[in-house]
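FIELD: query
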Amino acid sequence: MDLFADILKITIPALLVFLTAWILLRNMFKNSEARRRQEIILQNGRTITPIRLQAYERIILFLERISLESLLVRISTIDMSASQLHSALLTSIRSEFEHNLSQQIYMTPQAWEIVRNARSNMITLINSEAEKMAQDASGLALSRNLLEKIMELEHEPTRAAIDFVKAEVSKLM
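FIELD: result
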């Protein structure tokens, strides 16, 4: 019995020391892991935020480039027919969109959907006005009709998208 009591006198304090050390080490490792995770998240934020801002910049530029006034200034020439202008406008919008397609990775799904809708609305607007034109109409007549249609609208499709994207960027900062 004395031997058993002596073993307990040695074992119980050793177990208490072991459990205390184990709990302290476990907590220390958890804290260290949590700290490392926070550092990684912070580092990723420092890396990703500038890239996201560049993506939003490029999307704003895309939206500005597909705005009707910008398209007409860049693409329209005096000797173009309405069908040539129509084709050139659609080609420009599609190529601009394809060029900026990868930016969706850095944008929220809502923002990307707004951008896609703006592009679709511009294409629909151009198509609807081009369909109203006579076969031999000039590009100048189509330009005039497009500009009149835009003035009738409360907001140009690209303007609403630009405003939404700017609001998203302000949330990032």
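FIELD: remark
Residues 49-172 form one domain.
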